[in-house]
Amino acid sequence: MTELHDLTVLVVGAGRGLGRGIATAFARSGADVIALARDGASLAALADTHPAVRTHVADASDAATARRVLGEYRPDAVIVVAGATPVMRGLTQHSWETFSVNWDADVKIAFTWAREALLQPLAPGSRVIIISSGAALNGSPLSGGYAGSKATQRFIAQYAHMESERAGMSVTFTTVMPRMTPAGDVGLAGIRAYAHQAGLTEDAFIEQLEPVITPELAGQAMIDLMTLDTADSAAGYLLTGAGLAPLT
Q1: CB 3.0 to 4.6 Å from 21: which of 13, 79, 97, 219, for a disulfide?
Q2: How many CB atoms lie under 10 A from the CB of residue 170?
Q3: Which among 152, 151, 164 has a CA at the least distance from the CA of 116?
Q4: Is residue 3 assigned to a domain?
Q5: Given the DSSP bridges, would you call strands 243-246 and 236-240 parallel, antiparallel or unpaired?
């Protein structure tokens, strides 16, 4: 495990799934970890396992929370994992309210933290990593506006990076797009829906995804990305069970 004792890492959406795996990996590496999520019980369980982790129960989409937390901790890295579980159904079975769930959550969260990181601004050399989804590249016809919202998260990171460069801030914005995985509510919802559509059991569908992304693998991938020189960092990465692959 890479030792990161001088690093302060804020994980937004650390209560479950990949976010919890990322927070755990950085805590084990010796980094100073701030874990933010809406679910207080899940954060308490994380802190029981890793007492040095500092927790914040808050709505990740709230700009005042983002402003306050960034100003208080001045993190070296902000990793944004939070988002909503999409409603899984065909297009004609959606209402606009169900179709737009991830626009109102995921896009707003990415916009909020990217904007506040620029307005602070974070210290030169800081990084903001937005966890999007492989659906941003391939689509996801049973999850309403989910794929489009995740593609927009990628654009937000790109726009923020351009503003950082123009202003000479030296704050790096990167997008990571994980492939579908059973290691979280979003992936499980997708697996159930697409397995049913294909006439497969969930286990059989998951076998098609192997090697699958685990929370531990996601955590190590973020550590690998954080220890990579910014000059060698890509604007976006696909994350699979084999690890990170830069997007061109």
Answers
A1: 219
A2: 14
A3: 164
A4: no
A5: antiparallel
Is 44 inside a domain boundary?
yes
**Total residues belonging to the chain:** 248
| The two three-digit tokens of residue 167, written as one number | 């202003």
DSSP 218: H
Contact predicate 130/239, CB 8 Å: no
Give CA–CA dist 33/22, Å, rounded: 10
3-state secondary structure of 246: strand
Using DSSP's 3-state secondary structure scheme, residue 89 falls into strand
3 state SS of 9: strand
Q: What percent of the chain has pLDDT over 90?
A: 95
State the total domains in the chain: 1
Q: Does residue 248 have a pLDDT over 90?
A: no
Burial call 1-26: b when 16+ CB within 10 Å, e when fewer: eeebeebbbbbbbbbbbbbbbbbbbb
Round to whole Å and give the CA distance between 108 and 63: 9
Report d(CA 173, CA 233) in Å as an integer: 10
The H-or-E segment that residue 154 falls in is helix 146-167
- Are the C-beta atoms of 46 and 24 separated by less than 8 Å? yes
Residue 85 sits in a domain of what CATH number? 3.40.50.720
- Say whether the peptide bond before residue 211 is cis (omega within 30 degrees of 0): yes
In a domain, 236, yes or no: no
pTM for this model (two decimals): 0.96
Share of the chain above pLDDT 70, in %: 99
Residue 230, pLDDT score: 84
Q: Which amino acid is at 219?
A: G
Separation in Å, CA 173 to CA 79, 80, 88, 225, 226: 10, 11, 30, 12, 12
Residue 64 lies in a domain: yes
